[in-house]
Amino acid sequence: MKYLYVSCFLMLLVIITIVILCLMDKSKNDIKEKYEEIYRKFRKKLNTVNKKVRENIFDTYEIDGEIKEWIISILNKQTSHCLPKMYINTHLRRGDPNLEFNYSHTMGKYIILSDNDYNRLEQDYNINNENTITSLIVHESAHVHQRKEFEKEATDINYKNPFKELYKKWGYVFSDISHFSNILKYKRQNPDADDDDIIWSYMGKYYYINCFYDKKKLSAYNVHKYAYPIEFSRGKFVYNKGEPILLDNFKEYNDFFGDVSNNYTPNEIYADYTERLYGECVHNKTYESNEAYKIFKNNYFYK
Ligand SMILES: [Zn+2]
User: Fold this and answer.
1) 268 Cα–ligand 1 center, Å
2) What are residue 228's phi and psi, to 5 degrees?
3) Structure confidence by residue, pLDDT tens digits, 120-130
4) Å from CA of 103 to ligand 1 middle
5) What is the Å distance from ligand 1's center to 300 Cα?
6) Which among 79, 96, 228, 268 is least surrounded, fewest beta carbons within 10 Å?
7) What pairs with residue 236 in β-bridges?
8) Which H helix or E strand runs over 237?
9) How many angstroms separate the alpha carbon of residue 260 from the centre of ligand 1?
10) Structure pTM?
């Protein structure tokens, strides 16, 4: 009799182990499938330095359907009367805590909420606090909108990308830069801005502006914003080893774009400006009207 109990117990143990192993394998496959689907293109584009800082973490997860519906319905309700209209993207996912340095970002048609932002959303949902991460969703939606327009341009050379038209009005020119690859190696690649070839021109001078990792202390959290002087000679943009300016000290640039927290590339400036539009319309906020913000409002094309 005792023997029977022991064998039954062992059988049960084997069955439980098999079930657990099957479940583990399934979740592994799910993650792999999501990563393949969503991050494949981005991962392919990453250079060695950027691959290294990301430590091969590209996992995202589904979000509870009710939480998703809750925040989207708040946004729709808040912005339904806004003129100009706001672009709201409804495809939300949640990122691994170590994905993209825990920054919310976009990938394909998805807004990937950082673990921090998602936790805040979940807490607000639990107490029905409508003062939640809505402005962030507006910012990230702008990036999805941008990606759609840049993709249209990539498949149709005659397509006039309205974002590019606006960025030109801000002074940007689009061109590769010679002798610049050693600098670009340390640029923090941003899933929301494909911007190796975007140059800001001002009063006959040219600058390449972005976020750069510290060469001596490579870390995702040790990043500086620089403007590198670029020269235009014989019809080409060239980097002649000029010293960069810290973006915070670049007065003309900061006066032109104003106090924008994500101020280092036009896609981010645009996304921050849409947050201002949202703040003006929904929360009656007022913002300093810098030259670039005026141009943005006069040329806003999502109507
Ligand atoms: Zn952004």
Assistant:
1) 5
2) -90, 130
3) 999 999 999 99
4) 9
5) 18
6) 96
7) 233
8) strand 236-238
9) 11
10) 0.88
